[in-house]
Structures are given as C-alpha cells and as structure tokens.
Amino acid sequence: MSEIRFRLAKPSDAKQIANVHYHVRDKYGEGFFAHVNKSFLKQYYKMVLNDPWQIVVCAELNGKILGFSSGSMDTAMEFKTFRRNKWKFIWPLFTTALANPKIIKAALDRFKSTGEGSTKKFINSSGARNEFWAWLPGRDDSYMSIYTQDLMLFFMKMFGIKEVYGEMDTINKKVVKMQLKNGSKPLETFIMPDGRERMSCVLYLDEYKFKFPK
Asked: What percent of the chain has pLDDT over 70?
C-alpha cells in the first residue's frame, strides 16, 4: 500500500498546490484569496515556489498533492518579489474580475499594502510569516495536515528563524482557538480595509513542541 510522503515543494508543483488551495475555499469564504480563480492561484504559487525565501512543504500520495503548508522567512523580501512580478497577475486578475468585479479594489488595496510606509495593513510586513495551510477536503487522512505544518516550522527553525508571525480573522473562531492552543501568542487586533477584524500573533519556535513522527 502506498503511503503519504512529505517533501519540499518545487516550482513544477504550482498547479497542484493551487488546486488544493482552491478547493478549501468553501471552509472560509472571506478575504481576497477566497475569491480569486485557479489561474491567479497558479501564478501566485509559481512566484512563491521560485522565491528562495519561501518554504513550502507538501504531502503527496501516488504523485498527487493532498495538502501543503507555506511560510516566508522574510516577508519584506516577499513584498518586493510580488511588486517585481505584479504584471504577471494582470490577466488572472482580469479573468477573476469578470465574475467578481469587486475583486479589483481588493487587489489594489492588497498591492498598496506591500509598499514601504503603507498605512493599509493585511498582514505583518516584516520577519518570518506563517502563510497558507491546506488539505484537500473530503479525505479521511486530513489529520496528516498537522505534519505538513510541523515540517514547515521545523525547516524555519533549522534555518535560524526564532519567531514566526501570523494573522487570523477573529470571526474564524475555530482557527483562532487551534492556533492559540498550538502555542501562538496574540499580539494585537486591527481592522482591515474591507472591515474584517484580524488578530496578529507570534509563535516562538524555541518553545514550540513538534508533533511529526521522529
């Protein structure tokens, strides 16, 4: 019997990882990334997987990616990479806007937030950051997603990262409860340009108890 294997993702995985991300949107339909199409997500993960400051761990079974966890070791560098690649997102954003015109304003707000000195805030703009964590819905092995998150954080620690920042929408109480139970410490709450309340938090890796099999 084949077993799930974990590995670092590579640029050629962008399409499959975008597919996993796309199919978890029904769990929580708020925010920019919950409304973009697969084309946008594929272009986003092409950028991420070619960025040397990004860590993406995926879980694979028989060549199919079931889930992944991603994080940035340097958010400020990620912002610069995104701004440098902004033109590659024009067409995917346009095709998304055909079905949802409001996405244009949301995209502009997000883009402005990546500039130096921006007063718009969606995420922490510096330091290491915990980003996306997803597993294909409808599977009875979703508990394995814990290992993808753990391994991503493990690589962060091995590369010398001490603190990993993250954000959670406060209305998503299940995620907030899980992350706080997992060791994240709340820092502040703030209101985003679209009106959502978000909590920023930090995870100290020297205190974190890893769960993946030794």
From this structure: 93
Per DSSP, 212 falls in state S
Tokens encoding 95:
């095709």
The residue among 188 and 114 whose pLDDT is bigger is: 188
Report which of 9, 5, 22 is spatially closest to residue 55, judged by C-alpha positions: 9
Q: If you count DSSP H runs as helices and E runs as strands, how many of each does the chain have, helices first?
A: 7, 7
Using DSSP, state whether 188 is helix, strand or coil: strand
Find residue 168's DSSP bridge partners: 199
Q: What pLDDT sits at residue 1?
A: 39
What's the CA gap between 146 and 181, in Å, rounded? 13
Residue type at position 114: T
**pLDDT-derived band of residue 194, with 50, 70 and 90 as boundaries?**
confident
Dist CA 178 CA 133 (whole Å): 13
From the list 48, 110, 25, the residue with the least C-alpha distance to 102 is 110
